[in-house]
Amino acid sequence: MIAGSAISLFSDFAGVESGLLPLAQVGKWLPVFVTPIWVLSMGLLLGALVTAVIHGILSALSFIPGLGNLADDPKRGVTLSLIAGAIFSALLCYFYVPQGGENGQLLFLPLVTLGMILGFGLIYGMWHRTRSEWMSILGEGVIPYILGTLGLFAVIGLGSTPFVEKPMAILESVPAVNLVGDGTVVEVATIAPSADPDIPEFLPAGITYNFRNVAELRIESDKKVFLADSDKAEAFSRAPIELNPGSTEAVTYKYQDREQPPIPGDPAKLHIYNQEIDPAEVTFTFKNLPQIPQASSIVFSAVALFLTLTGFMAMRQAAPRVWALALSTAKNEMAQPLYLLLLAIGIFAVLLFGIFPFNTLGDDIRLLKDSGVTMIMVLGMLLAVWSAGTSVSDEIDGRTALTVLSKPVSRRSFILGKYTGIMLAVLVLFVILAAVLLVVMSYKPIYDARETSQQQPPWQVGHEEIITTLPILGLYFMETMAIGGIAVALATRLPLLANFITCFAIYVVGNLLSPLVASARENTELVGFVGKLIAVVVPNLNSFNVQAAVDAGNAIPLIYLAAAFNYLVVFVIAIWMVAMLLFEDRDLA
């Protein structure tokens, strides 16, 4: 059955290239397949453009005397970066923490982290050395692999533009994406009464709006008024709408209901007649959202790419010794045959999952998502633990670490650089396999519909599957970072095999920790104490495990990502301190 599915899939694409398939059939499913990829590609292209423009401006500012030399003194550069980062962090917290509601406090640490990236990016982006080293930054270490993967993904998406469904409509929705707030805008029109009470006088409302992006509208008034689309009765395209005072008399409108809007699309045509003798205040509450909601992923993809490149640049310039050690470690691990083997296994497995008939009565997409992201995580963990053994344990036993530390590199920088380099290598693995998985996820709804003779889904279904997969990949990368931190800490004392066994045991117990602690509460005090002790010593990896949500088809809220990030930061700091305790008195001679 699998072979037949693979042959069917291959024949589809071969038929497209050779022209054997009818154009009507190709035109039916190809736009559904490529549109989600095209949307993300536009986000990557926009992110590259924004990065080029912003850092181009910073490079131009580096010619100004004083600004370009701020980071010449490392202490001064770091201090000013922390100050700028604190300002950015305060602004981000001011705008976004209230949107988190009762869990808004979970956003503080992620927003502070983003603020620090922006602060260091600002100061070191204006550094004259950064201006002259940008080509070196983009061409060294893991950055070319990441940019190459994203660039190939963007080229594929850009090349599919002729087949995309309504590309201009998607792009026109981008300006309506709300980076801050939920898009609610309040406009108040003050309407004077008619000069002659016997003659209705429709006065211009004097408010501005773009009805193309209005998703919801609520109109309230403190006086009895009439809404019309002209100032003259003979020019009315419809009868004026009566609006009485009081919240219960408010006029509401929702775009999704496909009703006729209560006000004209052109703000200049909106006129209001105040029937009473006192001025009336008419309140218009607009909720502006992009007409095509999927356009939001373009903006957020662009922001993610900008922050990633800015973070790489800032770390390279602010911590050159750690960055040099990290790049050396990452390049060494990526040159190993095991890395290529894991990459090949991951690509083959993801493609196989795409055509594998899970026979789940309509839930094949969820199983593909679960199997794909789990496979990527497992391969990433294997790479992290193996790299910790080869780049830390072997270097310590082979006296290579002593040579590195004889240079102006502290033991703290050595451990931090090794951990960073290992995770950079894992990040490249994640990015490449994730790109393949997202392409498969875009085609999977079409493939399943054709296999089951069901109606072909719209492209929004594939896009939703892709967007809901990205947070899961983020969580599993965080879990890999936690296991990687443990592996690096243990590698300062244990050989590779012992490290593998210990990390495997921690992974199993860590994912069973929540049910273990819950069951311990119902037993004796001794069992409860042992359960709590294990919870203190072993990380709760179940915090990153969202398999239940994936199986239920539920989307992962961003606030959950923030909570998992908070836990990861605290755990990584703790395990780094343990690693330093284990490595500080290690005899390297």
UniProtKB/TrEMBL annotation:
Highest rank taxon of the organism: Bacteria
Sequence intervals crossing the membrane: 37-58, 78-97, 106-127, 142-164, 297-318, 338-359, 371-389, 422-446, 466-490, 496-514, 526-546, 558-583
Presence of keyword Nucleotide-binding: no
Alphabetical keyword list: Membrane, Transmembrane, Transmembrane helix
This protein's name: Membrane bound transporter
Organism: Rhodopirellula europaea 6C
